[in-house]
């Protein structure tokens, strides 16, 4: 079942659908310089690969394998946040995100990731979320820390950027950890 959009004060997180592909491609294209160091997929992105990813994301949602939201700001798709790699035995999953670079530094991704984390805990029933961020990816690490994720360790070559492997910090957040005060997201309905 596809969920209703999640709302925050400035954003809507909409379960990814084909209609988002073109805006997402434009957001990726305009942000390639900032995405490439951290995201191996960025180097080979094209309108076709983005459209294919969107279709796979819809299918994965329906199969209960991955839950990817398109982040929309002022009714324009400008990034994604997803919950993936579910581990049912340990009630855990991973969270990942990216945002169009001209919107960075405004707290938008913190808002989006907060709503997605609440969805993972409250709707999907996970107990633990894990995030891997390259050591030098200060923006991603800052989002994790603002959300209350705790630094748990270092993964040598734990993340792959366009230029190769990067050491990554592992962060964890539990459903029992305090929720950030700024999370005001709610389901549309």
Note down, in words, how this protein is organized:
This protein has a single domain, classed as Gcn5-related N-acetyltransferase (GNAT) (Aminopeptidase, 3-Layer(aba) Sandwich), CATH 3.40.630.30. The protein is an alpha+beta fold and 189 residues long. Helix 4 links the parallel strand 5 and strand 6 (128-134). It has helices at 21-30, 32-35, 47-63, 108-122, 138-146; strands spanning 6-7, 11-15, 66-73, 76-87, 92-99, 128-134, 150-161, 164-174, 186-187. The longest helix is centred in the first third of the chain and has 17 residues, at 47-63. 29% of the residues lie in helices and 35% in strands. The protein has a 9-stranded mixed sheet, sandwiched between helices.
Compile the SSE list and pairings.
Elements: E1 6-7, E2 11-15, H1 21-30, H2 32-35, H3 47-63, E3 66-73, E4 76-87, E5 92-99, H4 108-122, E6 128-134, H5 138-146, E7 150-161, E8 164-174, E9 186-187
Parallel strand pairs: 5-6
Antiparallel strand pairs: 1-2, 1-9, 2-3, 3-4, 4-5, 6-8, 7-8
């Amino acid at each position: 079942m596809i969920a209703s959009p999640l709302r925050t004060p400035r954003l809507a997180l909409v379960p990814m659908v084909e209609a988002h592909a073109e805006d997402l491609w434009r957001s990726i294209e305009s942000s390639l310089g900032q995405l490439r160091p951290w995201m191996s997929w960025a180097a080979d992105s094209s309108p076709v690969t983005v459209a294919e990813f969107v279709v796979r994301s819809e299918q994965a949602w329906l199969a209960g394998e991955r839950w990817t939201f398109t982040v929309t700001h002022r009714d324009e798709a400008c990034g994604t946040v997803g919950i993936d790699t579910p581990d049912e035995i340990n009630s855990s999953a991973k969270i990942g995100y990216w945002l169009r670079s001209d919107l960075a530094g405004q707290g938008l991704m913190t808002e989006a990731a907060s709503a997605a984390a609440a969805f993972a805990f409250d709707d999907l029933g996970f107990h633990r979320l894990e995030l891997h961020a390259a050591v030098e990816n200060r923006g991603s690490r800052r989002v994790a820390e603002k959300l209350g994720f705790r630094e748990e360790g270092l993964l040598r070559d734990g993340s792959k950027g366009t230029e190769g492997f990067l050491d990554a910090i592992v962060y964890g957040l539990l459903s029992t950890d305090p929720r950030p005060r700024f999370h005001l997201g709610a389901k549309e309905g």
